[in-house]
Amino acid sequence: MAAENIEEQVDDFPWHIGVYDAHCHPTDTMSSIASIPDMKAAVLTVMATRAQDQELVEQVASKHGVKSQPPDSAHGDGKVVPCFGWHPWFSHQLFDESVYGGDSKETLTPEEKQQHYKTAITTKNAQSLSDEDQDMLASFPDPKPLSQFIAETRKRLETFPQALVGEVGLDKAFRIPYPWAPDQEGQRNDTLTPGGREGRRLSPYHVDMEHQKKVLLAQLRLAGEMRRAVSVHGVQAHGVLFETIKQTWTGHERHVPSKRERKRQKEHPQAVHADDHQGENIQGQTEEVTSRPFPPRICLHSYSGSASNIKQYWDPKIPIDFYASFSTAINFAERETPKRSGIEDVIRAVPDDRILVESDLHTAGDIMDEHLEDMVRTLCTVKRWPVHDGAQRLKANWMAFVYGTGK
Predict the structure, then answer these.
(1) Tens of pLDDT along 332-362?
(2) Where is this region: Disordered (predicted)?
């Protein structure tokens, strides 16, 4: 059946099946939160990213959070799954206490603060700062202890048993915004939650990659401890992102039976392989399933790498179940360019049971519903799925990613 005919065979979009946004940021526009109960989307997976929105996500989840598993929004169960995490764009605002005297270190002296930021951001000359560099460092907030943030996030995950860890990750492209300049007075949009870019001019400074990795690994380990899924951001860092996540599972690889072992298991189905423990098949180890150094599931959100790059995540030896989500806002922002052809190749490379849709929008309501419908239709066209079938598949995939359904 031609792709255009697949798309045309459904006149009414199947909202009744349930459409699940795997990644969005409505707390960046708090005035839009009131529209969530009236949205067509079944559930929004809402990300926290920085100091200013952790409590906001918690507040929204307290009011609109799902309560059952699987969620039943049709009967008033709520429409939000909260996610608590620290985004790589803001990771310089966390400091490693071990560098400054131990875990009890809650604040830094002015000299330590400057030293921290000189280490955590990449400047032209970190040891000889220009006046512009000095102004940049002075504009940064007092950094927060990394272990304190991890402890606070652990409590939030305990409060919300269905919560995920996110948004976390690595980003080589992002440049830190300058502070508001005097000539920009009055330009800030007061409807936006503070702390984001908010239209500020971008500086030439990046967050140091080693520092980003330290913050990411701490959050991945927490997700492993709490057995929560993770939503991961990766921009121009696909190789280093894979290698960083790999650090968490190294030594815990799944055993992949050889041809001889598969033949033996087929001939003797009652025989339990020595490496198959508690159904997880992880190198014969006997550690508790309730805590591991790696998360059980990870979604590569709005994935922007190549088709050949993403295939490495489905190596059967990897003990993490990887998913990939796509958005019109990021992946299909340019509709008629070679980039579209490339992203369609990526979508086709993702296994049918590991693909998700997202909006990645900062405003809830009708526009978020429109983006989700557009992405579902686009994905179904690329995958050559009837839209009703695609909606069912995507619903099952979201349930499996968030709850581990069927795992």
Answers:
(1) 987 666 567 899 999 999 999 999 999 999 9
(2) 251-293
Q: Hey, how many other C-beta atoms are within 10 angstroms of the C-beta on 342?
A: 15
Q: CA–CA separation, 180 vs 178, rounded Å?
A: 6
Q: Would you give the DSSP letter of residue 41?
A: S
Distances in whole angstroms, Cα of residue 214 to Cα of each of 87, 120, 199, 288, 363: 12, 11, 28, 25, 30
Question: CA-to-CA distance for 47 and 193, rounded, in angstroms?
Answer: 13
Question: How far is it, in rounded angstroms, from Cα 249 to Cα 405?
Answer: 21
pTM: 0.90
Distances (CA, A) of 275 to 281, 288, 320, 407: 6, 15, 17, 18
> Are the beta carbons of 386 and 9 closer than 8 angstroms?
yes
Side-chain half-sphere CA neighbours of 361 within 13 A: 22
Tokens 């309501």 belong to residue = 365
Dihedral of CA atoms 342, 345, 349, 355 in degrees, nearest 10, equals 80
Short-list 18, 8, 12, CA closest to 391: 18
> Which pLDDT does position 137 carry in this prediction?
82
Instruction: Give the tokens for residue 51.
Output: 């100091």
What three-state secondary structure class fits 234?
strand
Cα(first)–Cα(last) distance of the chain, in Å?
33
Q: Which range has the top average pLDDT, 1-15, 93-107, 116-130, 341-355?
A: 341-355
d(CA 318, CA 250): 9
Q: CB atoms < 10 A from the CB of 267, how many?
A: 8
| Pairing relationship of beta strands 206-207 and 121-122 according to DSSP bridges | antiparallel
The rounded distance, in Å, linking the Cα atoms of 295 and 194 is 30
- Which CATH code for domain 3-256+291-403? 3.20.20.140
The position carrying tokens 């550690």 is 287
Contact 56, 33 (CB under 8 A): no
| CA pair distance 366, 357, nearest whole angstrom | 16
Domain chopping of the chain, boundaries: 3-256+291-403
How is residue 204 written in tokens? 């030439």
